[in-house]
Design brief:
The structure holds 2 protein chains of 2 kinds.
Chain A lengths: L17 E9 L2 E8 L4 E6 L6 E7 L15 H8 L3 E2 L6 H8 L3 E6 L4 E7 L4 H13 L1 E2 L2 H20 L2 H13 L13 H4 L4 H11 L5 E7 L3 H12 L22 E7 L5 E8 L7 H12 L5 H9 L3 E8 L6 E9 L5 H18 L3 H17 L4 H15 L4 H11 L2 H14 L3 E7 L13
Parallel strand pairs in A: 3-9, 10-14
Antiparallel strand pairs in A: 1-2, 2-3, 4-7, 4-9, 5-8, 6-7, 11-13, 11-14, 12-13
Helix pairs in contact in A: 1-7, 3-8, 9-12, 9-15, 10-11, 11-15
Chain B lengths: L1 E2 L14 E5 L5 E3 L6 E7 L5 E6 L5 E8 L13 H10 L7 H11 L4 E4 L4 E8 L3 H13 L5 H18 L3 H14 L12 H5 L3 H11 L5 E7 L5 H10 L21 E7 L5 E9 L8 H12 L6 H8 L7 E5 L7 E9 L3 H18 L3 H19 L2 H14 L5 H10 L3 H11 L5 E7 L1 H10 L7 E5 L4
Parallel strand pairs in B: 2-4, 5-9, 10-14, 10-15
Antiparallel strand pairs in B: 2-3, 4-5, 6-8, 6-9, 7-8, 11-13, 11-14, 12-13
Helix pairs in contact in B: 1-7, 3-8, 9-12, 9-15, 10-11, 12-14
The chains are: A alpha+beta, B alpha/beta.
Chain lengths: 454, 473
């Protein structure tokens, strides 16, 4: 079968096939948004000084779209692996082979709300990514053997990241108790029995339902000429028909739905504790204040919880906070690693007391300014590479519906007040239910580490 | 989030796309094909070296102050000294206590971490450009005016020990700790970078102070800034804050005696309830500046690099589904660092996977690489530098590594040409000279009560297997 062309087109774009939705500027960045006639959205963020080009395709399908009742958890992620196998025009392994040959860094990721494919490459190789990505959007072909092998690979991935991983195990237990109805309750990687039950038929049905131009956004960053790349995208994707992709409107559920306590044992030197609180969605008006609140609690070595748990009392060796980046309300997770012979109950008292204190008096102006500065640092740190830019744009596009909110957040952080933070601490950390999950050391395993010659 | 991520390829090189100027000796200017940034190397305070990599359109500075030091220079029986001394200094200087330093950094929105490797101790962090002056003032306090108070020494000791414990939760990190010791033994590269309970308890304030002062002297310090910095203001700020840096004497690292593994010896790091086995295997390699390194990089990229067409990924993941990923790569060290591979697989597959890895590695040594494979992976390495070069933080880290390893000033810029120049014969010679599949250290993190019988049942001799507890070191 003839291979698709991998050169840039020379013919001008037919304006009927393309809508120019807007241009957007932030500092020296110039971005633009386009929509093809078949619904494919394209965001271009050229940077003439970059060393590479990054081509990302974000599909609006994730684990939330799986049918858990039918034993299909993990299908979105396993399918992501299968997208690298073969198409009607590319033989088995050809995608990887051609990308390897140009030194492209290729990868993919699946989350609750999206599946994204990333290719970072020398700028002049961009046409190949456009060719191969457009091809696998519509022409994927699967064999039984490929599905079988990837089931094994994903099973190994699950063993590594969940079953033999302290945090992975706790996280899965938390999800199970945090939600009753919402599809965020099952793990993105899926349950082992479901992973092993995926068939080519199930995978292809999933593909035909969700992989369509009208369910995707292409984001291109790095060094490239926007007009040339746009023309190539129109040429390669323009004929792909749209599909009647279902809208996944999940039941509204603010997790955790009830207080819960989970205690298990494992090969850990000391208690590992996770707290799960409610978190607003990516697009929620309270989201900027919530992120600042996390900074105040855990964002640096002087943050309240780090100071109380690690520095002052020395009961823990670390504390970290993660605000879930989800389209619907998600979870705020606090991870505390206790030191040997220090009980997690001590950390519980400190964490809950810090939440209460924040809800009563809010942060000082100095604390708030420091938190804003840390967020500003993180914002710029996310943009230091072409891939970082594409990912940041994608997270905001999927999570809020508009990548431009990445940039307007800076103003939003500046408007947050101490009163806002106290209100959120009260509503989300104090008044709403929360979960405490602990891995204790195995019985008899809390001896201090001996030394020295293994 | 979960993804298809493979073990990342170790990229320590760059595209020919920078204009790089050295002002250390006679000015040398080279212009590559397309100039995107202007990177500069110049003399800094008290004989130090300054690397500047300006990037337009950002407000962020990636900063590093690296020393020609590191855990390999920790005296015998004092494992962890370099790291411990830097951690204590980071937490008390110029009369400012830990909480005051932390508060000042947090208020700026900046980070400052101690990163210790075999070859270097570094203070690294990120800071907004409008805070850089104040930030460097704080770093200078830590470098030039550390307090080393008894209280902070005790506190930091407890903290480092707790972090060593915390790292035991991660089987991969745990395996690396044991593997380095198994492979290098009493050599400097065999020391635990963060020390052990016994060695840390044996260190006193005077040892910490004198070791620290010897490390942080002009002859041993490399300053680096990337992002919102330029060739005028950054060096000027360094001169302002580090003008009193002692000149010191350039430290060199004695090669030491390397005792290579004899045959295949397996060390099981026994951890209860494991469903998988983390495997790390390897032998001594060659130093970063060795002329055979580019050819060896091609060979190992083809065998265990990040590409899906690398031998390990094809045979272990793509064809058999035995592991999520598998890799093998050379390290970039001042002295001969390890050539090491790693993967994880379920316990039931462990013996089959280990045997397969050993056979594949032996085949590479025996049969070499075809001309087509050399061409493919030569091109792969050259192309993949685009992503390696695209991030300001990665770039500056690579420049520092090159500087520490004594590579030519333009290593980053000339790497692609260097790789392109490697012939089939060069690659074959490097494989013959530097790969040693018959003599390997092998570390397996798993549950010994079930894993060891599987190994014995496959014909491996009892005497070739050692078992150590996961919290024993």
């Amino acid at each position: 079968m003839a291979k698709p062309a991998t050169t840039m087109p020379t013919t001008p774009i037919n304006p009927k096939t393309l809508d120019h939705l807007h241009d957007f500027e932030f500092g020296s960045m110039r971005l633009s948004r386009w929509r093809l006639g078949n619904g494919l959205e394209v965001v271009l963020g050229p940077d003439p000084l970059a060393h590479a080009a990054c081509y990302m395709t974000w599909y609006r399908v994730g684990s939330r779209d799986e049918n858990a009742g039918a034993g299909e958890t993990g299908l979105a992620h396993l399918f992501e692996h299968l997208m690298f196998t073969q198409t009607k025009s590319q033989s088995e392994g050809e995608f990887d082979g051609r990308m390897d040959a140009i030194g492209a860094d290729i990868n993919a990721m699946t989350d609750n709300d999206f599946t994204a494919y990333v290719n970072v490459m020398p700028p002049h190789e961009l046409p190949l990514a456009i060719t191969l990505e457009s091809d696998r959007m519509v022409n994927l072909a699967l064999s039984k053997k490929q599905v079988q092998t990837e089931r094994e690979v994903v099973s190994e991935e699950r063993l590594q990241t969940v079953e033999d991983d302290v945090d992975g195990t706790l996280h899965e237990r938390i999800l199970d108790r945090a939600y009753v109805k919402h599809p965020y309750r099952w793990p993105v990687i899926g349950r082992m029995e479901d992973i092993k039950a995926v068939t080519p038929k199930k995978a292809l049905a999933f593909y035909k339902t969700y992989y369509a131009p009208n369910n995707a956004v292409v984001i291109v960053t790095g060094r490239f000429d926007p007009q040339t790349v746009l023309a190539a995208i129109v040429e390669h994707y323009g004929r792909i028909p749209p599909a009647p992709t279902p809208m996944n409107i999940a039941p509204v559920e603010v997790a955790p739905v009830a207080d819960a306590r989970i205690e298990i044992e494992g090969p850990v030197p000391a208690d590992r504790v996770a707290f799960a609180f409610a978190a607003p969605s990516m697009g929620d008006a309270d989201r900027p204040a919530f992120e600042l609140m996390n900074e105040l609690l855990t964002g640096g070595p002087s943050a309240r919880l780090h100071h109380d748990l690690v520095v002052q009392s020395e009961m823990a060796s670390s504390v970290n906070g993660q605000v879930g980046s989800t389209r619907d309300p998600g979870l705020y997770l606090l991870w505390v690693q206790m030191r040997r012979a220090r009980a997690s109950a001590e950390a519980e008292r400190v964490v809950l007391s810090a939440c209460k204190a924040l809800s009563e008096t809010g942060p000082s102006p100095e604390e708030l300014e420091g938190a804003r500065n840390r967020i500003r640092t993180q914002f710029w740190a996310g943009l230091t590479s072409s891939q970082g830019r594409a990912e940041q744009l994608g997270y905001f596009e999927i999570g809020t519906g508009d990548y431009r909110k990445l940039f307007s957040r800076n103003d939003a952080y500046n408007k947050v007040t101490a009163v806002d933070i106290a209100r959120l601490a009260r509503s989300h950390l104090v008044q709403h239910p929360h979960i405490v999950a602990i891995t204790h050391p195995l019985p008899g395993a809390q001896s201090s580490a001996s030394d020295d010659e293994p | 989030m979960t993804n298809r991520e493979k073990y990342p390829i170790q990229i320590q090189s760059g595209l020919c796309v920078l204009l790089f100027v050295t002002l250390l000796s006679s000015p040398v200017v080279t212009r590559a094909n397309e100039a995107h940034t202007l990177a500069i190397r110049l003399a800094g305070p008290s004989g130090s070296t300054v690397l500047v990599d300006p990037v337009a359109g950002t407000e962020l500075v990636d900063f590093a102050l690296s020393t020609r030091s590191g855990s390999a220079r920790d005296p015998r029986g004092k494992d962890g000294l370099s790291n411990f001394a830097a951690e204590v200094a980071r937490h008390g200087a110029a009369g400012k206590r830990r909480t005051q330093i932390d508060l000042a950094l947090d208020h700026m929105g900046a980070s400052l971490d101690v990163i210790t490797s075999n070859d270097s101790v570094a203070l690294t962090g990120r800071v907004l450009a409008d805070k850089l002056d104040a930030y460097l003032g704080l770093v200078a306090d830590i470098v030039l005016r550390p307090d080393f108070s008894e209280d902070e020494v005790q506190r930091t000791r407890r903290e480092v020990l707790a972090e060593i414990d915390e790292n035991r939760n991660d089987d991969r990190v745990l395996g690396e700790r044991f593997f380095a010791h198994r492979l290098y033994g009493k050599h400097g590269y065999g020391r635990a970078i963060d020390g052990t309970k016994k060695t840390l308890q044996g260190l006193d304030i005077e040892q910490l102070r004198s070791h620290y002062q010897a490390q942080f002297s002009g002859a041993n310090v490399i300053f680096a800034g990337a992002g919102a910095v330029d060739a005028n203001t950054f060096p000027a700020l360094l001169a302002k804050h580090f003008g009193t840096l002692p000149t010191g004497k350039k430290q060199t690292l004695a090669a030491g005696t390397l005792e290579k593994p004899s045959g295949w010896r397996i060390q099981i790091v026994d951890k209860p309830d494991r469903k998988q086995v983390q495997m790390i295997w390897g032998h001594h390699g060659l130093q970063a500046s060795h002329p055979d390194r580019p050819a060896l990089q091609i060979a190992l990229d083809a065998f265990g690099g990040g590409a899906m067409n690398a031998t390990l990924m094809q045979e272990i993941r793509v064809k058999r589904g035995l592991s999520y990923g598998a890799s093998m790569s050379p390290s970039m060290r001042v002295l001969p660092g390890p050539i090491r591979g790693s993967l994880s697989t379920s316990e039931a597959n462990a013996v089959e996977t280990l045997r397969l890895v050993l056979r594949l590695y032996s085949d590479l040594k025996k049969k070499g690489l075809s001309s087509e494979r050399v061409a493919l992976f030569r091109q792969h390495l050259i192309g993949s530098n685009a992503s390696g070069m695209d991030d300001q933080g990665s770039r500056i880290a690579t420049r520092i590594l090159s500087e520490l390893a004594g590579l030519p000033i333009f290593h980053l810029e000339s790497f692609s040409a260097l790789i392109a120049a490697q012939t089939d014969a060069d690659v074959a010679r490097a494989i013959a000279a530097h790969l040693d599949p018959k003599n390997l250290a092998i570390t397996l993190v798993g549950t010994a009560s079930t894993l060891k019988p599987l190994l014995l049942g496959s014909g491996i001799a009892e005497g070739a297997i050692d078992v150590v507890a996961y919290d024993s070191y």
